């Protein structure tokens, strides 16, 4: 059984990014990642700080744009339009949740698609589903980077994805499809989930339930990728019961140190994919 090590994959991509950033520096370009934070949601504040640190580590400026809870939707849109028009800003991220009086849909779609490093605007999603992706959300991208690094091809394979969220399951299904897999997406209304998962050559768990996938659901030798991040008894665990599934699987990602370790670097990689037009 092989452990798919996210830290190793992240280090590989980080080195490549540092070289790209150095080339830009030679041209006196220091890209900025604009981090837009409204209010003081603790998880969002923590995520913003960790992105800011990660950006700085590879030589990109991570600049925080903070707004009070009572900022109006119009003011926030105007601020984002300003970032859209600022040439040094290569990427814009708006942290969720936003206060109730602000439409997350409107704000997300105010971001210019060329700077949508989260890959969550309608344009980014549509392009992904049309097979012409511009920016891919970082978690699905991390899953694909993991498979690529360990040279696990998806062509002709049966892939079961458990979870159909807009940030993980749905975009991931498109990426797997584009890699020529046969994809089944499971969700809370799926019947015979165990049977579907047991048939799969590759299982991707993005369900948000601690240790939901157990060894009896896994075909021996299959590849298991665990996107889940859950708290259990003060510990971080995945959506896969690692102890039992690792006895059956051919390859598996741990939690922590698996997919989660690759996501931030994928976001930073998106920043350097910045293009002046939609191509
Ligand atoms: P989400 O929006 O809550 O979606 C969960 C999905 O799981 C939904 O599609 C839901 O089905 C499905 N589901 C829930 N209970 C189920 C059940 N009993 N049987 C089958 N399907 C079930 O979660 P998410 O944002 O996609 O995140 C999923 C997990 O990944 C979470 O643990 C999250 O913390 C983690 N995550 C990790 C990263 C990372 O960087 N590694 C990034 C994002 C998220 P319905 O659609 O029918 O409700």
From TrEMBL:
Residues of the Tetrahydrofolate dehydrogenase/cyclohydrolase catalytic domain: 4-118
Keyword DNA-binding on entry: no
Keyword Methyltransferase: no
GO annotation, cellular component aspect: cytosol
InterPro entries per the UniProt record, alphabetical: Aminoacid_DH-like_N_sf, NAD(P)-bd_dom_sf, THF_DH/CycHdrlase, THF_DH/CycHdrlase_cat_dom, THF_DH/CycHdrlase_NAD-bd_dom
Entry's EC annotation: 1.5.1.5, 3.5.4.9
Pathway: One-carbon metabolism; tetrahydrofolate interconversion
Pfam families named in the record: THF_DHG_CYH (PF00763), THF_DHG_CYH_C (PF02882)
Biological processes per GO annotation: L-histidine biosynthetic process; methionine biosynthetic process; purine nucleotide biosynthetic process; tetrahydrofolate interconversion
Catalytic activity, as annotated: (6R)-5,10-methylene-5,6,7,8-tetrahydrofolate + NADP(+) = (6R)-5,10-methenyltetrahydrofolate + NADPH; (6R)-5,10-methenyltetrahydrofolate + H2O = (6R)-10-formyltetrahydrofolate + H(+)
Listed transmembrane segments: none
One of the record's GO molecular function terms: methenyltetrahydrofolate cyclohydrolase activity
Tetrahydrofolate dehydrogenase/cyclohydrolase NAD(P)-binding domain sequence ranges: 137-272
Assigned keywords, A-Z: Amino-acid biosynthesis, Histidine biosynthesis, Hydrolase, Methionine biosynthesis, Multifunctional enzyme, NADP, One-carbon metabolism, Oxidoreductase, Purine biosynthesis
Residues given in the record as NADP(+) binding sites: 163-165, 229
Summary of subunit composition and partner proteins: Homodimer.
Function per UniProt: Catalyzes the oxidation of 5,10-methylenetetrahydrofolate to 5,10-methenyltetrahydrofolate and then the hydrolysis of 5,10-methenyltetrahydrofolate to 10-formyltetrahydrofolate.
Family from the record: Belongs to the tetrahydrofolate dehydrogenase/cyclohydrolase family.
Name recorded for this polypeptide: Bifunctional protein FolD
Species whose genome carries this gene: Megasphaera hutchinsoni
């Amino acid at each position: 059984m092989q452990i798919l090590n996210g830290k190793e994959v992240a280090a590989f991509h980080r080195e490549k990014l540092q070289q790209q950033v150095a080339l830009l520096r030679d041209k006196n370009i220091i890209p900025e990642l604009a981090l837009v934070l409204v209010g003081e949601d603790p998880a969002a504040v923590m995520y913003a700080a960790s992105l800011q640190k990660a950006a700085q580590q590879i030589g990109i400026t991570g600049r925080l744009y903070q707004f009070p809870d009572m900022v109006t939707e119009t003011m926030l849109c105007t601020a984002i339009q300003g970032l859209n028009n600022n040439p040094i800003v290569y990427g814009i991220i708006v942290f969720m949740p936003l206060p109730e009086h602000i439409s997350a849909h409107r704000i997300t779609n105010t971001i210019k698609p060329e700077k949508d490093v989260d890959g969550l605007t309608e344009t980014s999603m549509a392009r992904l589903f049309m097979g012409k992706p511009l920016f891919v959300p970082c978690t699905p991208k991390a899953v694909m980077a993991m498979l690529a690094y360990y040279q696990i091809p998806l062509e002709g394979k049966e892939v079961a994805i458990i979870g159909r969220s807009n940030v993980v399951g749905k975009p991931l299904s498109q990426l797997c499809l584009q890699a020529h897999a046969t994809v089944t997406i499971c969700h809370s209304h799926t019947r015979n989930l165990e049977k579907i998962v047991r048939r799969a050559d590759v299982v991707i768990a993005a369900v948000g339930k601690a240790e939901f996938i157990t060894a009896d659901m896994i075909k021996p030798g299959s590849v298991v990728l665990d996107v889940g991040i859950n708290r259990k008894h003060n510990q971080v665990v995945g959506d896969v019961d690692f102890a039992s599934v690792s006895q059956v699987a051919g390859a598996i990602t741990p939690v922590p140190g698996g997919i989660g370790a690759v996501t931030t670097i994928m976001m930073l990689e998106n920043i350097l994919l910045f293009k002046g037009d939609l191509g």
